[in-house]
Amino acid sequence: MTDPSVPDAPWPELLSAALVGTARTAVPGPPAAEGRAALELLDRAAAAVVRERAGVRPGAAEPLPPARAEALPAAPPAAGARLEALLAEERYEPAGEWLRIAVLKGVLAPPHVLPALLDAAARNREGLHRPDVLRVCGERGRWLARLEPRWSFADPPRDAAAALPGRERWGAAPAGERRRMLAALEPCPSAGHEAFLGAALSDPAPGVRALALSLLARLPGAGHRRTLAALARRHVRPGARAPVVRPPDPRDAELAAALGLRPGDRTGVSAEEVGREWLWTLVGHAPLDTWIGHLGAGRAEVVRAAGRLREWDLLEALANAAVVQQDAAWAAALLGPIMDRLLLGHSMHGSRGPALVRLAPPEARAEWALRRLRGRGAGAPGTALVVLERVPGPWTAPLAARAARIIERAGRDRPGGRLDGLCRTAGLRLPPEMHTRPGFAPRPGDPPESAAALRDLTATLRFRHDMHEEFD
């Protein structure tokens, strides 16, 4: 192949030599090796085309430093092949289970699967738990993340101070890049970031200000949190029967600065509507412990008090706060009331119920589901499916046992009874060792649809059981 350091011959000369033929004319440039004139001409023409399209001459480049040595071994080949297939088929729920097993076993994803895994995690934050992704990607994953901005979540800074961009870099960056710089702090916001985030609240870009506010809300002991707590108590007060809310004035410069908002009227939007939006933002970012001792003696009492307010949805605003601040204890306290309302027909649009379920501990999720599955009619497949499909796996032992009994006792003589949906959900979340459970086998006389659903349930459980076995 042509050495790129060789001066390139003009394209017209290369073209002329190609038309005349190397038997009649010499190859433009340094003499070609004997017997290689035609090949050398093609190589030089190809190099000329690449140089033309690149717009620059090739030069020397410093090789990238290698990734650090891995401290953990790679997963067994069969397990690695399983992950590769799951990602190719976009089966993110079993892929998430694969990640959990790998973390427990202390092994890494195979190196050749890392680009697909990082791509999938960048697109799907719910099915693939990012902390698990980081653990199984290891040092090679961190190395790759430095080469592709979409994968930057996989390279959290080892030193919190090192994550802060310099003033010159921040000032010269466009809004999208400034937001990406802030997003790099999401895995590890710390007290050392408070001054930087506080300054970002006055950024010209709304997206930058919103992310800075969310990160400030997650800093324990931050002075900004105390400011928001005082403002929140001013606008949400205890009442005789229910809390009393006073929407903020959109001209309140102090509150606007604290929330990273812009005071003043908005064209086409009433001051009352803007005030309610500001109140939602304030409650969502004020420390959740603001309300203990103000609206109730503990979380449960605060949640009951918030549920009594009718003219503004304080309960949903508190749920939003739990999600924004990633507070699992508050998510557990709010889970029941919020999810009960969804099951009773409350609009899913904008509800933080699904996010609360993912944030709450597995025991709290199971407790809510078991309560909903008690009572007359709750064991019907269709009714159970409405509850169980909202509870991610792995299910706790009591919830798994209850779901298995519902499947076994389901009336199988009525096709379309939602048994198929229940089996699909349970197959991904029941303990995989249940694939040998006798009650899951089709019975004589079962309609074809019911028999197929049960066979698929067993096949999915066996698939997951094999996946676990591949790590041993």
From TrEMBL:
InterPro entries: DUF5691 (IPR043746)
Stretches for region Disordered: 430-450
Pfam families: DUF5691 (PF18944)
Name under which the protein is recorded: Uncharacterized protein
Organism from which the protein derives: Nocardiopsis composta
